[in-house]
């Protein structure tokens, strides 16, 4: 096998940013849709990681199988080959799929667990933890150390790649024993239709990002007034929890669309707690800091 041209470190960064940007854009879209269209189930946003994992597995597997590259790599006309210059084997495809889709999903779930545990650390009694809470606490202790080591290894791999000491820039390529190179004319001819779709998709991402920001700004403008017209809002006294579990502690009426605050565990009417949290940014009973993202509908 002759010396194959390899992409620059900047092209590698660009294709990695494309992949993460697509995910963040899709999550933002799901959030806007759930907030602005009541008929869309909120699980689209709260279970976004799981839905996106299934879609990502399908897209990445099809691209690895047909084009020997990931979706974002095809966008930059790159491909993966094994160390003998041949196409990827089934084992290499599965390993690549693990690093492209499954491990980023697991890392995101561990990060979510870490952030939740970090938020409640100051008020958790460590002597009376459930098994699930102990797992969260263990992850809270190990997550920074584990992923600091992983990020350090990735940094060393990229540094050796950029200086020409290695042909592989990531743990992914080292594990599946493959290298990244440019597509040849035959590959480009085979992927012409897909490349057209990718170019259209890239244009759609740029246009869609602007459009979503415009919609979000428009909805905010419609639902709010000028800062200078808003009166000073004094946080009300702490609300006592209702003795009747069927009643909302805010409006003292039967709960409509019961919604739990994930930080404190108290349940209220959706409209009541949504309006309260939007203004005061805290749980009405415990006064723990809360955002709209901490509200979970129970229906």
Please give a structural write-up.
- The chain is mainly α.
- The protein folds into two domains: 9-219, no CATH class; 225-299, Herpes Virus-1.
- It is built from ten helices and five strands.
- It has helices spanning 9-36, 43-46, 48-67, 71-75, 90-120, 131-162, 171-176, 185-190, 192-223, 270-280, and strands at residues 78-82, 178-182, 258-261, 267-269, 295-297.
- The strands form two sheets. Strands 4-3-5 form a three-stranded antiparallel β-sheet.
- A hairpin with a 5-residue loop joins strand 3 and strand 4.
Please describe the topology of this protein.
Elements: H1 9-36, H2 43-46, H3 48-67, H4 71-75, E1 78-82, H5 90-120, H6 131-162, H7 171-176, E2 178-182, H8 185-190, H9 192-223, E3 258-261, E4 267-269, H10 270-280, E5 295-297
Antiparallel strand pairs: 1-2, 3-4, 3-5
Helix pairs in contact: 1-9, 3-5, 5-6
Query: What percent of the residues sit in helical stretches (DSSP H or I)?
Result: 55-70%
Average pLDDT, all residues: 79
State the separation between the terminal residues, measured CA to CA. Answer: 60 Å
Strand proportion: 5-15%
What value does the Rg take, in angstroms? 24 Å
The rough form would be described as elongated
Sheet with most strands: strand arrangement: 4-3-5
Number of helices: 10
Query: Could you tell me the number of beta strands?
Result: 5
State the low-pLDDT regions, or none. Answer: 221-233
Q: In this structure, how is the largest beta sheet organized?
A: 3 strands, antiparallel
In total, the number of domains comes to 2
SSE succession? HHHHEHHHEHHEEHE
Structural class: mainly alpha
